[in-house]
Specification:
Layout lengths: L1 H6 L17 H9 L7 H4 L3 E6 L5 H16 L4 E6 L16 H8 L4 E6 L8 H5 L7 E7 L15 H12 L1 E7 L2 E8 L2 E5 L9 H11 E9 L1 H11 L17 H13 L6 E3 L10 E2 L11 E2 L1 E8 L10 H5 L10 E7 L1
Length: 344
């Protein structure tokens, strides 16, 4: 019961053992806009902490550690890295997205690194970890690489369940719950093949809840290797004009130009590696609604003061995930996107 009270803000939660940076949003905005690598903020901040959501095989975590532990150690500071993923360790589903034991052990034993990995963990159900003091109240950077499709590819506040299910069947094929090797699974019939996924693969959460989580947990938020469908659904929630969020109209290659107009034209012309400041082309949304349970004295709205968009999966000198590094080999995929967001 107390955990529920903490989550809903009825009582104060336990004090976190993890330090929180004192950097202010305007300083973070200036820092990020002046450098090509958003993760270099870790070298400037008084606390170098990262929350890696949906960490998969921990490939991003490994690259981050290799790049930043040594220079931080020279400054007599440690890197705090907390990684979580919904895949259940030991499951036969998920394939290469499970972290290898050797990689896990290497991260856990690394000097200059405070590392924690939480498997079988829904990123939107962090109450128990918070209550146990295992997570920081806020991290210098919160990141999510290759946010899942279709989990974040449809926004439930603008698309009905019927519309979403129709589009899923049209684009993904038929699907049903089943079992595989004694564990629940989702079977998808796609282009003549039967594919097996974790049972929650087609649970639709939408970008609003992801943005809410990122903004609550990170002073800087980085979304990497965002595929086309997820990107436009996220973008619709970041722009002020409600015309970018049409009710019950899924985004398709035919509808995107009509809905986004000049913004679509500008972003479609973006070269791989190019950075675009979104507010140069359209006003940013002033009040994004919170969809996660409100904490004590929390406003029901929030906003981002700065949003940068970059075209591409990987960038020189920027740590990335194995999924991002595989994008160039995916013939059917358009170049993905990176979003760099500074909450107000």
């Amino acid at each position: 019961m107390r955990a529920l009270c903490v989550w809903f803000g009825v009582v104060e939660g336990p004090a976190s053992q993890w330090p929180v940076s004192t950097l202010r949003s305007e300083g973070i905005e200036t820092c990020v806009e002046s450098q090509s690598n958003p993760f270099d903020l870790l070298l400037e901040a008084d606390v170098a902490s990262v929350l890696d959501l949906g960490c998969g095989d921990l490939s991003f975590a490994t690259e981050l550690v290799e790049q930043y532990v040594a220079p931080l150690h020279q400054r007599q500071r440690e890197l705090i890295l907390h990684s979580l993923d919904r895949l259940q360790p030991g499951s036969k589903l998920g394939g290469p997205l499970h972290p290898e034991r050797e990689r896990l052990n290497g991260l856990r034993s690394r000097t200059g690194l405070s590392f924690q990995f939480y498997g079988n963990q829904d990123m939107f159900d962090l109450g128990r970890l918070d209550q146990a003091g295992k997570l920081a109240l806020r991290y210098t950077i919160t990141t999510c690489w290759a946010p899942a499709t279709p989990t974040f590819a449809y926004e439930p506040t603008r698309l009905s369940d019927q519309i979403i299910n129709q589009d899923l069947h049209r684009t993904k094929g038929t699907f049903q719950q089943t079992h595989y090797s004694g564990e629940p699974a989702l079977e998808v019939q796609h282009e003549g093949r039967a594919l097996l996924f974790p049972p929650w693969k087609f649970d639709i959460r939408g970008p609003l809840v992801l943005l809410d989580l990122l903004a609550r947990r990170g002073l800087l938020c980085v979304l990497g290797a965002v595929d086309t469908q997820v990107f436009w659904e996220i973008l619709a929630q970041l722009l002020e004009d409600s015309r970018f969020r049409p009710n019950n109209q899924p985004f398709t290659s035919e509808s995107l130009p009509a809905v986004f107009g000049e913004i679509f034209d500008r972003l479609s012309r973006a070269e791989v590696g190019e950075t675009i400041k979104l507010s140069d082309y359209s006003p940013l949304r002033k009040e994004i609604p919170c969809v996660l349970p409100l904490l004590q004295a929390q406003s029901p709205f929030y906003r981002f003061r700065s949003i940068q968009i970059r075209r591409g999966a990987t960038f020189p000198g920027v740590p990335s995930s194995s999924t991002a590094r595989r994008f160039p080999d995916m013939a059917e995929e358009h170049p993905p996107w990176m979003l760099i967001l500074v909450p107000e």
